[in-house]
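Support request, please re-run this one:
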Amino acid sequence: MASLYSRIGLIICIAMISIAHADDEIASNNSTVIHPQETLNNSTILTMQQISKVASDFAENGVIEKLINNSSNNNNALALSALRSCRELLSLAMDNLNKSLSTPVDTVEGRGSVKSRLCATGVTLHTCVDEFNGGLRDLVFQKLKEAIYRNAEVNKVMAVINSETDNLLGQDSADGYPRWLSDSDRELLLRGAKSSADAVVAKDGSGKYSRIWDAIQAAPRWSKKRFVIYVKSGMYHENVKVGADKWNVMMIGDGMDKTIVYSNLSNGGGQSTWESATFAVQGEGFIGRDMRFSNTAGPINQQAVALLSTADRSVFYRCRMDGYQDTVYAQSNRQFYRECHIYGTVDFIFGGAAAVIQKSFIFPRKPLHGQDNVITAHYKKDPKCDTAIVVHSSTIQASGDLTGVPTFLGRPWTPYATSVFMHNIINKVVDPRGWRPWDTSRGAPPPPDTIFFAEYDNRGAGASTANRVKWKGVRTNLSPAEAGRFTVRSLIQGDQWLPGTQVSYDPDL
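Re-run finished. Output below.
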């Protein structure tokens, strides 16, 4: 993919010019002072350079593609899908790093954004590795390990800045809206968005577009103004992507049982987990309301994503996500789900994001014979990333008869996996043990002590913690202060950006 290589090179050139200008300005003011922003930016540039060094290996006709094509392996289709996923993931990693370069860290909003972007970069690089199996996976890791290491070092720099700038942080605008939201955008959000939509999609021909994909292409690139797409009632058989250059898109349907987007791509069908998504969101500031996203591949086809989001400050309100294994892929950055219905079986809410699911319904459903249900599988390899999957003030109940099917709150995908359940109603569907090891084979080691699986003030027949697994990383007695770290305000800085979305939210416990 030559365009990936050239695009990464262009991003680095622009970034280095920006750094040079910043360096000149700093030097002219005080040649002996090293500004925290300068240190952060220089470290970020090193990570970008490492990605750039290996980009050609992932390109069309590059080293990895040639190895796959020359292999006699029967899974070549899946490996090629993984390679296509990696090309997109490397581009997203560069986008996250480039955006962090242009964001000052002397405000609450800026600091939260940069932290999110840097952690998203690490998750995205690891996701590229994890899309492969066997020897190819080892090769891809060797290609990316220096970039992964460099990004972890950038996170250390950011941690120092966080500790030293608490008293220097600015505030948002006095009316409660974040600064990035323009006056015209606020006015739009306060009006009926459907009636003022920029694009209308309808199966019956009453809108300008009949496909959601076409309406997204009409949205401006990198826009700070909200672009509203109204999707009327209907069944839309599409694989939709809101690209990384499509900022501040709002998509509104007629209800989770009326506006339905569906497809059936899956690992079993030859797609990587990344490429299987029915609806994928990458552009920051996305809002989805009153829609359903379904993957109909069924449990036999393994990983099959209904909704994937890498978008910072993404919101899903009154939406339904239907799938089996890997229904909701909250891959990275800050995400908020409110009054949603989420159906699935294995790891059906998973990823490395800082995601809060609030006032929603979680529905475990019947998996393949012999499978367990697992609600969450969080991905965190860097302890300095403040990320977690949080289920707050929601209800967990079975979808149908799950007799004989153990259902667990989560399992540890990575050494620092963090899942928190607080103020929920947990029905009897949840196994008394609560949490499941990643590997249940005989002789497998227990999860590392570094995981953080926590419950706080839940109710219902499945909420008793008396028989929970006795791992060091399982916390059944959080204090209010500890639980407070995982609220909308603390984990995703939602009080800084959610007011402008006009979506209800509870900032605290």
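The chain is about 30% helix and 20% strand. The first strand starts at residue 199 and ends at 201.
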